[in-house]
Amino acid sequence: LEMSNLSEKDILVLRLDLTDRSSHEAATNSVLKHFGKIDVLVNNGGRSQRSLFVDTNMDVYSAIMELNYLGTISLTKHVLNHMIQRKKGKIVTVSSVMGIMGAPLASGYCASKHALQGFFNSLRTELTDYPEISIINICPGPVQSKIIQNVFTENLAKSLETSGDQSHKMPTDRCVRLTLVSTANDLKEAWISDHPYLAVCYLWQYAPTWAWWLMNRMGKRRIQNFKSGV
């Protein structure tokens, strides 16, 4: 058992709702009052999606963007103001491999992650006067978590009936460790995934025509499995 030198005053837990954007300034101030500074912000809130676009209500797309995208940049805005005053800090955003490719049954989720990629890549170019503020995008592939149990479906009131097998996914602690390594080394973007998902990322980046062909084949099977409840 590792001994920790953390005491009660080193830990502060606040309830936070990313969709309640009016609460983000007060939450940021509470942290600053307790610790005096914010060294690292990890944006890790979000929900995925499992539904076909033709079946999905528009309010699902609105809710995904409100949570995954707007909630994240709202919290970032308040924390960044503090980091600019200090001229130091790290903003780590958990995007996804879906931020660099597309996939069936996740059009809204992909859109929100593409939005985060575009936003933070643009923000990085606005912070050239602050070389000690790092903008770090983490793009995990499939990771073991409760994200599947909490996905958006074709309407806001419906939850997913089956969450499927997660044994093929990367263990959570490995993803966390690699995220910490990426953060410590100020990587602008890190793809954290096992093969074959990682190979598909490279294919999508460097040989998109092949990626489309492969994704269409894989996607067809994925949609058939989805429709038959697998």
UniProtKB/TrEMBL annotation:
Record key words, sorted: Oxidoreductase
GO molecular function, one term: oxidoreductase activity
Pfam families: adh_short
InterPro entries: NAD(P)-bd_dom_sf, Sc_DH/Rdtase_CS, SDR_fam, SDR_family_member_7
Similarity section: Belongs to the short-chain dehydrogenases/reductases (SDR) family.
Name the record gives this protein: DHRS7 reductase
Taxonomy of the source species: Eukaryota, Metazoa, Chordata, Craniata, Vertebrata
